[in-house]
Amino acid sequence: MKKESLLTSMPKLIIIVSLIIGIGVVLGVSGYFWAMPKSEVMINNEIETETNNEVDKKIDNETDQKEKLDIKTGRGELDEGIDVAKLQEEIDKGDQSWKLRYGCMGCTEEEVENAVVVPMRVEAELVLKEIGKSFGFTKEELDNFNLEKPFSEQGKMIYKIYHNSDLYVVTLTQPVVDYYKIWIISKIEFYEKECNPELIGIEIERKVNRIFEEKNGRLEQIMSPEQFKERGYNEYCVIWRNVTNLSADIINRLPESDLLERVISVKNWNLYKNNTIGFQFYYPEKWSHQEYNNGSHISFKDGIFNAPLGIKIDYFRRSGQWAIQDMRSIVVDGQKTYFLESGSEWSVKTYGVITSKPVSYLSKISVSGHDLYLEYVFSYNPQSGDASQTTQKHKDIFGGILSTFKFTEKEDISEWKTYQNEEYGFEINLFESWRGYKVFEESWKGTTLDNNSTKYEGPKIVIRNPKWSESEIWQDIPILVFTKFEWQLIEDKNLNIFAAPIAPSKLGENNKYVFSLPPRWVGFTDALGQDEAQKTVGTFKAIALNELSN
């Protein structure tokens, strides 16, 4: 009753002004400094808006230029009337009374409503991918963005995004410019110049690019960025794609490879068979192989040190500046994929003479919902007389491996025991021999690598083999649980949780948590049952918490 009498005693003018200011602050900081399509709004205590007729005229004019404009375009600007520095200070403390949208990246709407905001580092790319969907872009389009001006202006990032072959330029800015401050989408523009949508750019990890030109329905001509500019093409007109997510349409337009037409003898080769995912192939008889990171990386060695063939499952990352030399479509056991030949931008010199040039062959094959990246890397001496024979020999070996690649039936795990964790949302299938297993919770601890040295701690779920004893150690299965924010810190290399500077390997994620394994969790000790534990972890599955509650 006291609260009601206090409110009714307040002057109506003060209440109205307070509401206007409060709404303006929340909308401003949440990133909605936004206009209607193709209009500009100044966020001010006194808002000057264009009339509906003027806005309609603008939209009609633009519709004449481009049909079905389904991306929200326009720009918004902060007004001096909002004390942005003060708001950022409150964000840094984490004690503001209202909800900050970017304080809960990746959360559900319900979690956003109930969020207690904590200080966090927000990358421009994360804001682009999360908030960009509300302006009409799809997830795939946002994943294929191109950074137009990296580090060109402090507190400003410009991205290029294609939507239905039309180019949009998206600008992100920081109201308060600094490394750890918030980002907002401040402008989206439709690039109205004439473009050739058949000009495709393909890149490897956004490092070295090659541009494919349409000729007679095929993407045959490869140009370097320098050659591309010499021909007078506009850089805005290139539709860029990464080799990890090339569409079937692009692969179908690549010229066909003759790699598998060269027949070499694989009579005495060894068979590698992966029952967990369901594939097999043959590899040279004197080679050996070893699995790492829970079987997500398989290395094939031709000696003690050299490992020409590596297979990465659901994750692909290369070191060095690799340039695409040739790229063609290829059919592997009925599946159409690509065969990529690349050379490194660097070489090894001895006394000023090039003695070693790296070359790489790469193919991506999808198996049972997994993406396998088969990469074959070798070096040759360009000064030697048999350089061409050496490269052909290695190409033939890789061709022999691909020619024997077959899809197989996955291992039947229907009789395995399933452990399900309802608190964090995951399940894993255990061998029958694990009947009577134990589960207990420990914790991981880490510290950020910035000047703040912020400490973090989270759960580690340990599943223990029933045969384990003090005198006979069997391999545990340790599953680390991170929040989305904590995992982003790890990916940014800003959170260290182990003595060695090696990041944990990701197992999966649900709508709230990211799960991983510690680095070198197997092979670092003499624990028994390591192979069995690795196969077990291959059955890990993250489950959305709302699915468990149902």
Tell me what you see in this structure:
- The protein has 550 residues and is α+β, with helices and mostly antiparallel strands.
- Helices cover 21% and strands 33% of the residues.
- It has 13 helices and 30 strands.
- Strands 13, 14, 15, 16, 17, 18, 19 and 20 form an 8-stranded antiparallel β-sheet that branches. It has a 6-stranded mixed β-sheet with strand order 1-2-6-5-4-3. A 6-stranded antiparallel β-sheet has the order 27-24-25-26-29-28, with helices on one face.
- Strand 16 and strand 17 form a beta hairpin.
- The longest helix has 18 residues, at 12-29.
- The protein is globular.
- The relative contact order is 0.07.
Question: How many runs of DSSP E, i.e. beta strands?
Answer: 30
User: Could you tell me the strand content as a percent range?
Assistant: 25-35%
Instruction: Provide the residue-averaged pLDDT.
Output: 75
Q: Could you state the oligomeric state of the chains shown?
A: single chain
Summarize it.
By secondary structure, the chain is of the alpha+beta class.
